[in-house]
C-alpha cells in the first residue's frame, strides 16, 4: 500500500555482509573488482613509501607532508618549520630565551616585590607618609586619653567636694 508523497526515514532495507562474504570479495558494499584495485593501490603505496623513505633519509625533517604538499614541492620562507629535538641533542646548559611579554611580566613582579620590601622597611615616600600619619594619630589619641583622664579626675574631685 502506498504511503503518499513522503517515505519514512529508513527508505531502503540495509544489507549486512558476513565475514565470509567480505573475505570472498562478494560483499554488497564493495564491487567485485575492488580486490584488484586494492592490490594495485597497495603496490603503489609501497613504491611511494620506499621513495619517500629514501627522500626522508636525505632530508633532515621527518615531517609527513599533508595535502598537495606531497605532490608539489613548496618552498615558503614564512612557513614555520617544526623543530623536534631529541633528548641527546638537547643542551642542558642552554636556557631558552623568554618572550618580550614574559620578560616584562617578570620585571614587573620583581619591581613590585622590591617596592613591597622597601615599603615594609619604611624607606619609600609613601611609607614615610603613612608612618607620619600614624605618629600623628597616636599623638592625637594619647592627648585625647590624657584629656579624658583629666576630665574624669575633675569629675571625681567634684563628687568628693560635693559629698563633704
Automatic annotation (TrEMBL):
User: Basic and acidic residues bias: where?
Assistant: 62-71, 97-164
The entry's cellular-component GO terms read: cytosol
Q: What is the lineage of its organism?
A: Eukaryota, Viridiplantae, Streptophyta, Embryophyta, Tracheophyta
What region holds the Casein kinase substrate phosphoprotein PP28 domain? 76-153
Specify residue ranges for compositional bias: Acidic residues. 40-61
Give the start-end ranges of region Disordered: 1-164
Q: Which domain of life is it from?
A: Eukaryota
Q: What is this protein called?
A: Casein kinase substrate phosphoprotein PP28 domain-containing protein
Amino acid at each position: 500500500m502506498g504511503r503518499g508523497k513522503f517515505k519514512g526515514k529508513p527508505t531502503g532495507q540495509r544489507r549486512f555482509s558476513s565475514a565470509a562474504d567480505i573475505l570472498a570479495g562478494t560483499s554488497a558494499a564493495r564491487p567485485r573488482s575492488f580486490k584488484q584495485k586494492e592490490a594495485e593501490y597497495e603496490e603503489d603505496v609501497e613504491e611511494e613509501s620506499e621513495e619517500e623513505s629514501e627522500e626522508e633519509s636525505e632530508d633532515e625533517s621527518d615531517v609527513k607532508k599533508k595535502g598537495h604538499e606531497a605532490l608539489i614541492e613548496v618552498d615558503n620562507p614564512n612557513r614555520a618549520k617544526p623543530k623536534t629535538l631529541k633528548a641527546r641533542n638537547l643542551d642542558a646548559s642552554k636556557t631558552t630565551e623568554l618572550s618580550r611579554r614574559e620578560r616584562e611580566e617578570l620585571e614587573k613582579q620583581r619591581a613590585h616585590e622590591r617596592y613591597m620590601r622597601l615599603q615594609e622597611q619604611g624607606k619609600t615616600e609613601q611609607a614615610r607618609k603613612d608612618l607620619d600619619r600614624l605618629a600623628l594619630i597616636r599623638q592625637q589619641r594619647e592627648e585625647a586619653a590624657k584629656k579624658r583622664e583629666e576630665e574624669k579626675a575633675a569629675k571625681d574631685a567634684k563628687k568628693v567636694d560635693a559629698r563633704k
